[in-house]
Each structure stands twice: as structure tokens, then as C-alpha cells.
Amino acid sequence: MPKTIRRLAAPLLLSAAALAPAGELRLDNGAVIPGTLVSIDATTVSWKADKIGKISVAKSDVKDLQTTDRATVRESLHQPPQDDCLVQVRDSKWSIDCGPGPVQSVAFAQLRSLPAVPSSNGKLTMGLDIDRGTSPSEEVAVDLDARWLRKGYRHNVYINTDYQQTDGSKTTDKADAYYQYDVVRDAGWYWFGRTRYYRNEFEALKQAYAGGGGLGREFTPTENLNLSLQGGPAIMYYQFTEQGWQTKPGAIVSWTVVWQTPWREVELSHTGDLGWVYSVTDAYLFQSRTGLTFPLYQGLVGELRLDYDLSGVRGGGNSDYDMEWVMALGYKW
Q: pTM value?
């Protein structure tokens, strides 16, 4: 090639490389959108289209995605975002790699089996009520809900205590705690094992120990809504008022709903838990917590919550349910 032609060709090739799009997005309807990948969440792809700007596309509409850009990927609300991920879609089949290294050596893994980044998240709140009047009273309520994510498994811990003293006498003495170990599978499925302790001195079901396991599933029907449901068999060791201790086989079912509302990062949540004994019709315990959590400053949060417990047996002068409103301050990470 003559020297003059080489001199002219070099700048032209560099200009063409600079103008070439970093990626291409092809949709089911046939549209082809050149541009760059920004991020991916549970339901949508954020794409910066050439000459148009940033757009959002449903993941279900993506047929092909080719890019050399690394982006942030978040598979579900229960998992933190993963940075520096390389994504590829071929004929509606998703693949991803979030490991370090150059693009040329990337080995793709199926998106649905994206491993969790080792991390932790949770919330600790405390409510304190001190009344000084004709009937002096002090009440303390502490609530901890935490999760430690690891690749392929996770640890879950929940602790709730409520203690009240009125006119020098104890009037409320409640405690509920469990530890759960999850083995995470594909498409939101997981196996779990759980141990639990429950105590409520002034209700019909005074104490209970339980251990069991089963199968669970997480759903993300919309970007800011996360659902989970789990259940399985368990062994119950419990004490009802005037009936003593008993050991029976039973089952447990739990569910959680978390909605990240569009209003100032306010979170609406509901959790429910039902445990029962197979052979005794009224030997069951239902619990639910429904609340609003709103940010105050950085990790500090406020919470308004309704706690409700219902047991199947009414013993003596004790009631079979307990309901209270809780206002608390805490920290969320």
C-alpha cells in the first residue's frame, strides 16, 4: 500500500472506531437500537440509545443484546446490586459474568443463577415508652431483622422482645427469635432450615420451641415489589396454659411482602407466620407484622408497625390474642 494511502487510511479507521456504537439492543418487535448499556434490574434494562438518550426496556422484550460495556446488575430486591458485570443476550437467552478480567476471557453464566454478592442487610429498631402519672409504667420493644448473603446460601436472624412494667408489676413479657439457613437455587427457589423460640407469659400459648425446614420461593412481580413464600414440616415443643408441655409434629408457613413505595423512599412491609400441630385442631400460632419504615438521616429510620399474635387456645383468664401498635427509631443497613 502506498505510503500516502496509509496515512489517509489510519485517521479514517480511527474515526470509524470512535463513531461505532459500543453496543446494540435488538427487541422482539424487530427494532434495533445502537447505544450503551447503563444498568439492569429485576424487570427492566436501562439503555442509553444513540441520539435518543436513556430509555427503559422490559427484559421480556429483549431478543439480543451485544455490548462490551460493563454495567450494574440487580437480580432482585433481596440482593444488592452487582457492579462491573458483562451481559449478553442471544435469542432471548440471558448470560452474565460479574468477575474481574478482560472481556476476551469472560466465561458467561446463566443470569437466573447469578450468585449473591457476599454482604449483609438488616434493620434494628427500638421503641421506648416511659409514663409517669397515676400508673407509672415503662415499656421497651426491640426488633432486629438481619440477613447475611453468601454465594449459594444465606443466614437469616430475627429477634423481637417486648417488656413492660406497670406500678412495679410486670404486665408484658414477650420474646420471639429464630435462625434460618437458606440454600439458594435457581429462579428464586431455595431450601431452608429453621429453629425458633417463642414466649408470651400473659397469653394462652406461654412458650414454644420449633425446628423444621422446607422449600421457599421469591418473586419480583414489579421492579419495587418483592414477595416470598416458604413452608414445610416441623417438630413443635410447646406449653399452653393449664395444659403443660407437649411435643407434636406440625408444619410452618411464612410469607413476606416488601414494597419500596415511590414516596420519599418509604417502605411498606408485611410478614406473616403460621405454625400448627397436625393432631390438635386448636394448637396453632399466627403472627403478623405490618409497618411503614421511613428514612430520617442516612441510615437512621423511623417505623410505625402493627404487631398481632393469635393462638388457637384460650386458657383460663388469659386471652388468645395480642395486638399492639409500635412506634420506634432504628438503623437500617
A: 0.70
